Amino acid sequence: MIQENYINAPTLETKPFHKREHFFRNHLLNSVVEYLDYRTDMGDLQFLSSNDLWRTFPKYFLRSATFRTLYDALGESGINCWPFVYCHGDLWAGNVLADKQAYYVIDFEEFGKRLFFYDLFDYIAMDAIWGDDITFVDNYLDSDYDVSFEEVFDVVGLNYNKTERALYLGLVVAQRLFYYRTQFGTKYARKWLELVEYAFEYSA
């Protein structure tokens, strides 16, 4: 029998931006690097080619102009083999409890294999989608987290390309739409597509 203590703490969703970013910078990024380093040492990484990765995305979305832009960027990327690992799958501020001593990640219902950087970009993107705060995305596109992402990519043997920031974010959005079986044309789907469009326009 496993007994778990109840943690009576608010989620990061209720905290101001600098608190949510502090968790990202000082805890999540470091934890992902350590996790990827362990998985790499264990030989647990699985790889998909760019073509195979593209075929995993929802076909009805692939006809949109947004995803044609994403497809072109994927074809021009210096990366043609993408690592997959087990990820939380829904790691956003609403699934992180914060008390005075520690952070606690909850709700692992969407746990599964995703792109190696899935949880990081999902955390950034969800601040815009659920929190209606584009600050995280802007900071990322403005290169605020480049040094950390270089380390994330390096640990799996890849080069982080600063000109491909919109591509990395867009690939995670495409995966989220697939795993959540999001219906094309819905308001929710439109918000995600607009976020990808925004990233590519911002980076142009």
Q: Give the CA-based shape.
A: globular
What is the level 1 CATH name?
A: Alpha Beta
The string of secondary-structure elements, in order, is: HEHHHEEEEHHHHH
What summary fits the major beta sheet?
3 strands, antiparallel
* Tally of strands: 5
Structural overview:
This protein is mainly alpha-helical. The protein has one domain: Aminoglycoside 3'-phosphotransferase, Chain: A, domain 2 (Alpha-Beta Complex). Helix content is 53%, strand content 10%. Helix 4 (65-76) packs across helix 9 and helix 5 (118-129) packs across helix 6 (135-141). The chain is globular, with a radius of gyration of 17 Å. The mean pLDDT is 92.
Please give a quick description of this structure.
With 204 residues, the protein is mainly alpha-helical.
